[in-house]
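Go through this:
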Amino acid sequence: MNKISYKTYYNNRLKEVDFHGQQTHPLYVQVTYERKTIFFKSYYFELFSKPRFFLDVPGAGAKGPELELAIRKEHEVIDFIIEKHRDDFSLEIFKDAYVYYSKDVCDLAEAGFRDYLFTFFWDEGSPFLGDLVKYGGKHVVAYDLVRDFKRNFQKERYDKLIKNSFEHSPPYLPLYGFMSERKRWPDLCLTMMEWRSVEVTITFKAYLDRVYPDVNGLELVKEVNNLPYNSR
């Protein structure tokens, strides 16, 4: 295989943007192979820029992820793709693989889950709570919001919310719950690269058996594999 080179860099041709209170040029990636070069915006720069990764605790202060986290995640997925396609590498193959393997499956599932909560609360006679979840709570992790629901809702209403979510929304709750048992802030994501490993799939199935024993684990794994990774 011919030499492949890549680097991450801050694109100073573009205006600075806010990264959790820090002004910075957007992070970009450059990949060169057979004298051809492609440039594209870092997926992880966009991901970790999202409000849900910002911590603001009363009395303890506020902080966001460091930019180095996005750089590290870029190196991990790019190295993985290069190794995986040692025998058939091309820039076209790389671009398709990057779009797939870099994606955070929790992020892919969250929007659909928030849409489900929006509809659920409207149907349950709490439309303004539904509006708050969909339009006003993007800085709050949806999984954490549901944990607060458990503490504050009547059991019957909470159990209905959880049960219906498996029928009417992407499998966000089990994905995020599984991921949060394995990782700590700020690296609260589960990439498709990680998800497609046999070890993670087996561990996830064990998690489902323990936390959601009534759920068909194999069908849920298939549902995760079919998340529309190229739509965002």
